[in-house]
Amino acid sequence: MKLIDTLHRWTGGIIGLVLAILGLTGALLVHKDSWVLLPHAGDAQVQETAHLAAVTQQVMGDPVAQPQSLTFASQNFGLLRLTFKEGAGAYADQDGTIVTRWQSQWERPEIWMFDLHHHLFSGDSGETVIGIAAVCGLFFVVTGILLWWKTRKTFAFRLWPARMSRPAIVRHHRDLGVVIAPLLLLSLLTGAILVFRPLAALMFGPGAPALIDKALQGPPPRPAKLNDQLDWAQMIRTARARFPDAEVRSISLPRKDNGLITLRMRSPEEWLPNGRTTLWFAADNGALVASRDAADLPMTVRGYNLLYPLHTAKVGGLPFRIVMTLSGLALTLLGSLAVWTFWFRKPKAVRTSARRPAVPRYRQSS
Description:
Layout lengths: L1 H28 L2 H4 L13 H12 L8 E3 L8 E4 L5 E4 L5 E5 L6 H11 L3 H28 L15 H30 L4 H5 L3 H9 L15 H11 L4 E6 L7 E7 L10 E6 L5 E5 L6 H6 L2 H5 L5 H27 L23
Antiparallel strand pairs: 1-2, 1-5, 2-3, 3-4, 5-6, 6-7, 7-8
C-alpha cells in the first residue's frame, strides 16, 4: 500500500496539471453551443432537402472561396461552419450569408479551447499526451479508492478544503475523489479509448479494435482531381434519396490524394453528433462511389460510436451536461490541488535539537 501511495502522489504531482486543464476545458466545451453568442446561432435547424441542396451549391460551388468543409446547423446550434486552410474559418446563417470570419483559431475561443482540450496545441503528439494523462487518471481513480478505504471512517464530503493546509487538502482530495469517482471513470475511460483505439479491447473484447478499424474504413482511394464545376446540390439530393430519414451533417473536400468527397449523415437512432452514415462521391464527376449505413455496422462498432457523445455530453440534454460539467470541475480541482500540495505545500521537516546530557548535581556535604 505504501508503494501505491507513492506512485499515486508522484504521478499526480507530475500529470495533475494536464488533467486540470482537460477538466476545465471539457466543462466549458460541454456548453459550447450556448456561449457562442452570434446572430442566428439560436435559429431553428433547417433540413429541407431543396434548401440544403441550394446552400451547399452556393457555398461549395464557388472555386474562389471554396471551404475545405461545410458543417450544417444542428438542433442546438443554428449556424453553418466553414473551415478553410491554415486555421481560417467562418460562421454563416442557414441561407449561406456569412456572419463572422476568422483567419486564425486564436480569434475564436471555442476553437482554440477545443484544440487545447484535444491536442494541447501540439497536434498528434499533444493528443498522445492527453491519452497518457487519461490512462494515468484511471490509475488515480482506482488507487485513490484503495487508499481512501483505509481512512473511510473519517469521511467528510466538502466542495472545498476546510483549510488550505496540506493535511486538510489531502483529506478533501481523498473524500471528494471517492464521491466523484464514477463520473471520472466515465470521462477518463471514454477519453482514453477515443485517443488510443486499442484500449477498446478493455470494454468490447480482444477483437474490437481490429473490427472497429475495418468497419469505419472508407473505400479505397482513387486518383481524381477536384472538378470546379461539380453539381454539389445533386450530391445532397442523392444522399437524401438513399437515406431519407437521416440528417445531413457535413460535406468535406478530398483529403490528401484520395479523390473522394465525404458526406456524413446522422440517422435518427444515432447518438454521434455527425453520425456514421456516410457517402463518398468522386471528386472529378460527383458520381456516388460508395455509401455506409450506420444501422448496418456491427454491434461492437455501434457501441464504440456511443463513447464520443457520452464523453462530450451530446446526449441526455441539460441534466447530463450538468453531470459532465461536475466531472470536469472536480477533475480541475483535484488535479490543480494535487500539483500544488505536491510541489509547493510539502510538510516541513521536523528539526530536532541535540540536548546536552543532564549533569547530576551533588549536594555538598557539610
